[in-house]
């Protein structure tokens, strides 16, 4: 089976979870919607092109290997916004701040990020579809829109290095070796504090990655199957997870 495999690394990443109030949490690894958004940006698909977005979402399966979830960082900040006034429409930030000081309100919020996280992504064609993975690989090398790790404030810090490989094992695809981010794997280990445990997440057949004697496959339910990006509609899906100790 053919897989498109690439690596994600950046000083900061934010993989959105369900947000309540002013809190914006992050998952430890990129979900399916985050990867689909990255692929769509690389291909130049706009948010209002629902047919193209749906076609991409239905055509691929996504798997993730977490080398390191990174360190959690919480950004606590404030922002000023004017009181609602139906007679005035603000078209830019300068206009919002031009109202009288007494009409400005302070909004408190916190946003979570993962610092120095590393993930390997494997993309495959969904059953019944024949996605052109070479087209996706070319788009990742020369993306139409800027790529980022969950938020626009989280740019990539290393080349994606997309590669097509043929293998009958999803785990073999996710275990593909990439060049060291520093001078050697030992320096990567020290700098990124890479744990001995590696986590695998995938959709589809639960038996695609067989558990070892001391590990168990769990099935999780995540609400990150995109429905309509313009209306921020998402549905749930099953995802499988296994933790394996490095040899």
Q: What is the structural class?
A: alpha+beta
Q: What count of structural domains?
A: 2
Most strands sheet = 7 strands, antiparallel
Cα Rg? 20 Å
Counting DSSP E segments of at least 2 residues, the number of strands comes to 12
As a percent range, the share of strand residues is 35-45%
Shape label = globular
CATH class category label of the largest domain: Alpha Beta
Q: What is CATH's topology name of the largest domain?
A: Alpha-Beta Plaits
Note the gap between the termini: 26 Å
Instruction: Provide the residue-averaged pLDDT.
Output: 90
Give the low-confidence spans.
none
Tally the helices: what do you get?
A: 6
Q: Order of strands across the widest beta sheet?
A: 9-1-8-5-10-12-11
Relative helix content: 10-25%
Return the CATH architecture of the largest domain. Answer: 2-Layer Sandwich
Could you spell the SSE succession in H and E letters? EEEEHHEEHEEHEHHEEE
Can you walk through the features of this model?
The chain is of the alpha+beta class and 247 residues long. The protein folds into 2 domains: 2-68 and 111-245, Alpha-Beta Plaits (2-Layer Sandwich); 77-107, no CATH class. Helices cover 20% and strands 37% of the residues. It contains 6 helices and 12 strands. A hairpin with a 4-residue loop joins strand 11 (218-228) and strand 12 (233-245). The two termini are 26 Å apart. The mean pLDDT is 90.
């Amino acid at each position: 089976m053919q897989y498109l495999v690439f690596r994600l690394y950046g000083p900061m990443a934010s993989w959105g979870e369900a947000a309540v109030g002013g809190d914006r949490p992050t998952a430890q690894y990129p979900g399916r919607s985050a990867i689909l958004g990255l692929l769509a940006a690389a291909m130049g698909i706009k948010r209002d092109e629902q047919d193209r977005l749906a076609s991409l979402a239905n055509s691929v399966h996504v798997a993730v290997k977490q080398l390191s979830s990174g360190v959690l960082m919480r950004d606590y900040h404030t922002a000023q916004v004017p009181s609602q006034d139906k007679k005035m429409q603000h078209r830019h930030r300068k206009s919002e701040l031009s109202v009288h000081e007494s009409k400005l309100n302070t909004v408190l919020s916190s946003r979570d990020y993962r610092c120095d996280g590393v993930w390997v992504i494997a993309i495959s064609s969904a059953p019944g579809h024949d996605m052109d993975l070479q087209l996706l690989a070319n788009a990742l090398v020369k993306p139409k829109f800027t790529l980022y790790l969950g938020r626009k404030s989280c740019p990539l810090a290393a080349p994606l290095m997309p590669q097509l490989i043929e293998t009958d094992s999803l785990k073999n695809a996710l275990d593909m070796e990439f060049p060291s981010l520093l001078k050697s794997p030992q320096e990567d280990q020290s700098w990124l504090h890479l744990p001995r445990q590696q986590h695998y997440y995938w959709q589809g057949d639960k038996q695609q990655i067989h558990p070892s004697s001391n590990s168990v496959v769990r099935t999780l339910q995540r609400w990150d199957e995109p429905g309509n990006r313009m209306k921020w509609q998402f549905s749930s899906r099953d995802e499988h997870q296994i933790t394996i100790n490095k040899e």
